[in-house]
Amino acid sequence: MAPHDRPRPKLAVWKFASCDGCQLTLLDCEDELLALAERLDIAHFLEASSATAPGPYDLSLVEGSVTTAQDVERIHHIRAVSRRLVTIGACATAGGVQALRNYADVAEFQAVVYARPDYVATLATSTPISAHVPVDFELRGCPIDRRQLLEVITAQLAGRTPNVPAHSVCFECKQRGTVCVTVAHGTPCLGPVTHAGCGAICPTYGRGCYGCFGPSDSTNLPAFVPLLHREGMDTLAVVRVLRTFNAAAPEFDTAARKELEP
Amino acid sequence: MTHRGTRVLHVGSLARVEGEGALHLALAGRTVTGARLAIYEPPRFFEAFLRGRAHTEPPDLTSRICGICPVAYQLSSCRAIEDACGVTVTGQPAALRRLLYCGEWIESHTLHVHLLHAPDFLGADGAVDLARTHRTDVERGLRLKQAGNAILELLGGRAIHPVNVRLGGFHRLPTTAELRPLAEQLRRARDDAQQTVRWVAGFDFPDADCDHDLLALAEPDRYAIESGTPTVMPAPGTTGPARDSDRALPTRTFPLRAFGDHVVEHQVPHSTALHSRLDGRRHLTGPLARYAVSGRLLSPIALQAAQDAGLGDPRQGAVCRNPYRSIVVRAVEVLYAVDEALRIVDAYEPAPSPYVEVPPRAGTGHGATEAPRGLLYHRYTLDPSGTVTDAVLVPPTAQNQGAIEDDLRRQVQSRLDRGDAADAELTALCERAIRNHDPCISCSTHFLDLTVERAGNC
Q1: Would you report the helix, strand and coil content of chain A in percent, each value rounded to 5?
Q2: What is the mean pLDDT of each run of 10 residues along chain B (458 residues)?
Q3: Cys bridge to A12: A44, A206, B25, B425, which one at CB 3.0-4.6 A?
Q4: Residues A57, A14: contact at Cβ < 8 Å?
């Protein structure tokens, strides 16, 4: 079979509770989008196309967290029709910002937002995809990084491990030559415990990292949290910064709970 | 004579819109009895979890409501909290906020014009499909989109959920040297934007008309983007009280702090979302409303393009009420945003400080900006330490939902008045009617998940 006759790998993009930003990252690949579309068959991507083709799919990208009973059924179906399943972004990987409900009374949340909360069908928790089905790879970030997304898609289709570093944001600051905002200015920064991938944007813009890529693979929160206190953050401020876009990531979750212990 | 009885059309998943929604249409014979944009995007409870956060946090948090218009959320948050704290941002930081917002308009509008909306007019399923027949147009769109993203990346750090916005201004201001390459890219983008207006002006537009009241922010001296006063242009033929019912109601304004008195949200039985009404009437925000309210303040190049594209001269009172032509108005707004971005870049001189301090105080503040898809209002109440005790966010799509549903009903009825139509044709018609408004369903601070069929007309 000539190369151009070979069936192209089928890509599907799925959405759960989220802001659509990680899917948009694919459309933000302005220089690569059309070339990518020639190499793979975008079989299901509702944000971008009305045409959908049935599975099975070679690669499913999943954005968003599981927050309804129907979501639970849907993710099992998606897993069943996907050869490889990759989560994209903090929602799919760690429950996202909507996981803040996990620390609150959801009935009370509903009453705040809706006059008739009984109309709302929602679970009391927001959970990552891996809490429900096996996941082949998790791409971090709120939002994900465009270059990393292209690397993951390419690697998955080639059957190799994506070259996505698991070290902390601090390494990226060093690579960029950015002066440490904590050392130089006493600015609290989550860089030492946050997963690399963004390119250390916040310190380059003069602010501390706020952890939107979630915990790095070898964090030491018990050693790190006292440093935040040293830079002037009180208990509630530490809890808030850990409970933001990756609140339900186990390392951040454990550290925040420990802070709140009497 | 054949007479088809009651039938219900259901499109389970609506494509080429942000977020996920469905469409329900109920017909009795040739009469539309129900038309609904059903939202099954699960609620995310932003208004609830904003309570208890520090007053510095909502700009980063609320940006996560929408990956396509994060700047709209960041700047509506900033304006509302600065209002509560009695701070006004002026000078270069204010100009750069407008520049950042121009970047978002260029990116979001171009995404909608080229990749999501144009395929409707050209018989394609999406951008990749469209590129087979209109490669240069799609490539031009991607180039324009890239120019918008370049502004967001330089000024905001990244295109989605920028990190550089803070209360009072920015964490860091760009240098003049950093902005210079942007000007070159924007000059190319201006040509692309002009070409885009000409391209979309040549599409075949179905006849359609809407009689919603139009709501947009207005400023005295420029096209409103990142600030302004709510201004209402009543539907044509709308008359005042009975005693002077022969007089059409004039354009009116109200102070932003009174937004909640005029735009009232309510949960309607058998509907999927909070609807809002403007002084008791259905209303529309977005490009058609902005063009009606502020079109005369477009830059000369954008005004000329609008007239050449057949939109008429807004300085002579021309208003566009055909929702299908919103793609032309969006293209004109892209041209304006590119032109305005260039003006700001050319006039830029770094300010001594990237931000002004915004010390907390107790109070309630209001902020509204023009998101690409319409007016976005935020209200926060702070306690003396700056902790948020109450948050209200009114996204444009929630306001537009009543108007979208009315467009659906009206366009399907108009089609059926000319003879029966197959479900597939009606479905396609409805999807187009919805996409005309570039709805942003991810704004699920407010949307409900409900399966009850709407009983009556919208």
Answers
A1: 45, 15, 40
A2: 64 77 85 81 84 97 95 98 98 97 98 96 94 97 98 98 98 94 97 98 94 96 98 84 64 96 75 73 96 97 98 94 97 98 95 96 98 97 98 90 91 93 88 90 45 30
A3: A44
A4: no
Strand B252-253 and strand B229-233: pairing? Answer: antiparallel
Q: What's at B165, amino acid-wise?
A: V
pLDDT of residue A218: 87
**Closest partner residue to A207 among B68, B125, B171, by Cβ?**
B171
Report yes or no: B127 at the A interface, CB cutoff 8 Å: yes
Structure tokens of B253?
A: 């304004």
What's the ipTM? 0.95
CB B106 within 8 A of CB B337: yes
Segments in B295-325 forming alpha helices (H):
300-308
Give the pLDDT confidence score for residue A131 in this predicted structure.
97
Q: Does residue A150 register a pLDDT over 80?
A: yes
pTM, full prediction = 0.94
Distance of alpha carbon B434 from alpha carbon B404, whole angstroms:
6
State whether the Cα torsion B98-B99-B101-B105 is positive or negative: positive
Amino acid at B273: A
- Judge whether A27 is closer than 8 Å to chain B, CB to CB: yes
For residues B166-195, b (16+ Cβ closer than 10 Å) or e, as one string?
bbbbbbbbbeeeebeebeebbeebbebbbb
> Which residues of A are less than 8 Å from B48 in CB distance?
101, 104, 108-110, 112-113
Q: Which residues, listed in sequence order, are joined to residue B275 by a DSSP beta bridge?
A: B266
Contact yes or no for B327/B203 (Cβ under 8 A): yes
Instruction: Give B369's strand partners.
Output: B376
pLDDT value for B246: 59
A111 by Cβ neighbours in 10 Å (0-12 / 13-18 / 19+) ranks as: middle
**Alpha-carbon distance A36 to A146, whole Å?**
13
Q: Do B267 and A104 touch (CB under 8 A)?
A: no
Q: Enumerate the H helices of B325-449 as residue ranges.
A: 326-346, 396-417, 423-435
How big is the A-B interface in CB pairs under 8 Å?
189
The pLDDT assigned to B19 comes to: 74
Q: Which of B127, B138, B449 minimises the CB distance to A68?
A: B449
Residue A188: count other Cβ atoms within 10 Å of its Cβ.
20
CB atoms A20 and B51 under 8 Å: no
pLDDT of residue A118: 67
What is the phi/psi pair of residue B238, to 5°? -70, 125
Backbone angles phi, psi at B199, to 5 degrees: -60, -55
**Calpha distance B99→A143 (Å, rounded):** 22
**The pLDDT of residue B284:** 97
Under an 8 A CB cutoff, do B41 and A198 touch? no
- Spatial CB neighbours of B363, under 8 Å, sequence gap ≥ 6: B84, B85, B86, B381, B382
B200: which residues sit within 8 A by CB, 6+ positions away? B113, B118, B121, B309, B327, B328, B331
C-alpha distance from A140 to closest chain B C-alpha (Å)? 14
Block residue for tokens 């990190």:
B163
Return the closest-CA partner of residue A149 out of A245, A11, A243, A49: A11
| Chain B residues within 8 A of A100 when measuring between CB atoms | 45, 49
